[in-house]
Amino acid sequence: MTDTWKKLLEEEKEKEYFKKLEEFLDKEYEENEIYPERKNLYNALDLTSYEGTNVIILGQDPYHGPHQAHGLSFSIESEKAKFPPSLRNMFKELKTDLDIERTERNLTDWAEQAVLLLNTVLTVQAGKAASHRKKGWETFTDTIIKKLIVKMYKISSTNVIIFQVKYQSTTNNIRNIKLLIVNILVHFIMLIVNILSLTKNFIIL
């Protein structure tokens, strides 16, 4: 994490839920194959500073296949990895909407250009999607999102934040995001819901 992220999240990491999460992760990394590697756990917060973040692209879980997850939502660590439909679909939209032809699947360059590529859950067991949900990550990443939205609103009420939710998005996901936005008076936000990456539904809140 950058120094600012460390300071902003210091209090959060002292809370009981986070201590339990760390205990769970210690055991998981010791007993199972977990993605991403622990050294890449906070890659998004290493590469994209709090001060510099202009856009958030929010996923749900890391990819759970080999050579894929490296701490950035939707990004692929290695060309050896399977090309996931969600990222393929994103590239198609870039070409269709902006005539940008992108082939590089590692999105580190985006992260270095003020795009926070954040998953709501930062770890997953190999081959088991959603295996680390409801362990505490959602509370932690909600805190990150809230801090960023407040910061963005103070700077400009027209900043765009993109929430891209993989897999099947539930009504509760959408309701919770709406409540978060309304509570802090963000005027413009786009929620892109990708159901299994192939069905595109666009919801303007």
Gist?
Helix content is 38%, strand content 15%. It has helices at residues 3-9, 16-31, 43-47, 85-98, 108-111, 137-155, 171-183; strands at 34-35, 55-59, 115-119, 124-125, 162-165, 190-195, 199-204.
Overall pLDDT score? 80
Major sheet: size, sense and barrel closure?
A: 5 strands, mixed
Alpha-carbon distance between the two ends = 31 Å
How much strand content do the residues show?
5-15%
- Write down the secondary-structure element order: HHEHEHHEEHEHEE
Global structural class: alpha/beta
How many strands in all?
7
State the helicity in percent bands: 25-40%
Low-confidence stretches: 164-175, 181-205
The value of Rg in angstroms is 16 Å
Tell me the overall shape. Answer: globular
Give structural notes:
- The structure is a single chain.
- With 205 residues, this protein is α/β, with parallel strands linked by helices.
- It is 38% helix and 15% strand.
- Strands 3-2-5-6-7 form a 5-stranded mixed sheet.
- Helix 7 (171-183) links the parallel strand 5 and strand 6.
- The longest helix is centred in the last third of the chain and has 19 residues, at 137-155.
- The protein is globular, with a radius of gyration of 16 Å.
- The two termini are 31 Å apart.
- 30% of the residues are buried.
- The model is unreliable at 164-175 and 181-205 (pLDDT under 50).
